Amino acid sequence: MTTTGETVPTRRRLIAVVAATPAGVIGRDGGMPWRLSRDLKRFKRTTMGGILVMGRKTFDSIGTALPGRRTIVITRQGDWKHEGVLVAGSPAAAVQMADQITAPGDLSVAAASHESVDASATAPAFVIGGAEIYRQLLPDCDELWLTKVWSGVTGDTILPITWEAWRPTESMRFPAGKKDSVPSEFVRLVARAGESNGGE
């Protein structure tokens, strides 16, 4: 119970964004073994203005902080840094850091790196990989935005998901376009209350 005038802290909405085949393949040789231009455009549009949370290897595969979004990279390398990026030592620390970003221009979180913060207090934080980051943070996510990649391609990175923990609310199927190597389906799922959302 709070007294009048107290501010009740709220956790920033956490959304996992995953592209996976029906077998759970999410990557091969540090990248994605498919080409989905439509999905990349949707990713840019839907994450704009938000906070991207990712592991260092995922960031290395991108190579730069994406414009229009705040980036938090999770790494145990204490001396790692990159221009325009906030650094967290663990997935839990990354979520806490995202929660502390309260308004445009707030320097409290980024003081150590002298970077300005441009995500609003209501913008979601998006978990975008890699596999270990997904495994640790899926149980904390409010939503899962899944691109089902309709392909039998093999890969070296698999992410099993406990589907019973998620309830689909939206689904759209897309044929392969000129710049897509395979058909896909976008599915928006929300976490079922009181259940674990992660995979084992």
How much is the radius of gyration in Å?
A: 17 Å
SSE order: EEHEHEEHEHEEEE
Q: Work out the number of β strands.
A: 10
How large is the count of helical segments? 4
Overall residue-averaged pLDDT value: 86
Could you say what the CATH topology is called?
Answer: Dihydrofolate Reductase, subunit A
Report the span from N to C terminus.
Answer: 36 Å
Q: Regions with pLDDT < 50 over 5+ consecutive residues?
A: 103-117
For the biggest sheet, the summary is:
8 strands, mixed
Output the structural class.
Answer: alpha/beta
Fraction in beta strands: 25-35%
SSE order and pairing:
Elements: E1 14-20, E2 25-27, H1 37-47, E3 51-55, H2 56-62, E4 70-74, E5 85-88, H3 91-100, E6 125-127, H4 131-137, E7 143-149, E8 157-158, E9 166-174, E10 184-191
Parallel strand pairs: 1-6, 1-7, 3-4, 3-6, 4-5
Antiparallel strand pairs: 2-8, 7-10, 9-10
Summary of the model, kept short:
By secondary structure, the protein is an alpha/beta fold. It contains four helices and ten strands, in the order ββαβαββαβαββββ.
Please explain how this structure is put together:
With 200 residues, the protein is α/β, with parallel strands linked by helices. The protein has a single domain (14-191), classed as Dihydrofolate Reductase, subunit A (3-Layer(aba) Sandwich). It is 18% helix and 26% strand. Strands 5-4-3-6-1-7-10-9 form an 8-stranded mixed beta sheet, with helices on both faces.
Supply the key terms.
single chain, 200 residues, alpha/beta, Dihydrofolate Reductase, subunit A, eight-stranded mixed beta sheet, two-stranded antiparallel sheet, 10 strands, globular
